[in-house]
Amino acid sequence: MTMIFGIPVQAFLGQLLVGLINGSFYAMLSLGLAIIFGLLRVINFAHGAQYMLGAFVGYLLLVHLGIGYWPALIIAPIIVGIFGIVIERLALSKLYDIDPLYGLLFTFGLALVIEGVFRYYYGVSGNPYSVPALLAGGTNLGFMFLPNYRGWVVVASLAVCLGTWFAIEKTRLGAYLRAATENPRLVQAFGVNVPLLLTLTYGLGSALAGLAGILAAPVYQVSPLMGSNLIIVVFAVVVVGGMGSIMGAIVTGYMLGLAEGLTKVFYPEASSIVIFVIMAIVLLVRPAGLFGKDA
Predict the structure, then answer these.
(1) Could you tell me which CATH number the domain at 9-127+145-285 has?
(2) 105, 87 in Cβ contact below 8 A?
(3) Tens of pLDDT along 202-226?
């Protein structure tokens, strides 16, 4: 049997795959958080609840309307994004000019309300969501057996992350978004509807969380607790990458997912805290994060 560092190669690569899958969700969720914080300066504690909403929208569409995975992959992010737009217009837009702490407290309370509603109606036990037939089974790579759906999650996550980064950093719309957060009055003077841009930004961040949720539904059970179990880890990823850094959120999401997977191989007892240990070390060495800009 082939060994790597004294560990069977199948076990080693299997844990790397688990880490890469987790990293895919970390990257997508931290990307949405980084967009909202970087452009709106709002610490969105409701992001985990919006991730859970995406999974539940897909689950409810299947159970009550018979709408399968592929249409839900489009519908769920749109519904969660619209929900985010409504929240931003009705509440968050009133908090931009005051202490950011109020935005954090509001989104934290919103997350508790959303989670409480779903816990009341669905309890805390998970609900299964089947892998779509097109992606059922797996592929034998010779050195390991790769589940097709897990491979799809990694590819889809990478495509969404890189596409979002390109749209924000390399297009005219992205330039408008960045300028609107730096000097909204000047951008408004050029005829750009700044409030609409900010609303769409929050909607985009929410939609990314919803997309991550529907992608996660066949991997993890759909549960009201799935967001709260993940959001603290995702915040740690954002801090390590640099608050507001789009590329930092993507790179550190995958990097910390792999670090978590490798830790499960060599020292399983530390796998649940390794991300926070890395965060503490990074903050000691570089308080702004790996990709953050020093004040």
Answers:
(1) 1.10.3470
(2) no
(3) 999 999 999 999 999 999 889 999 9
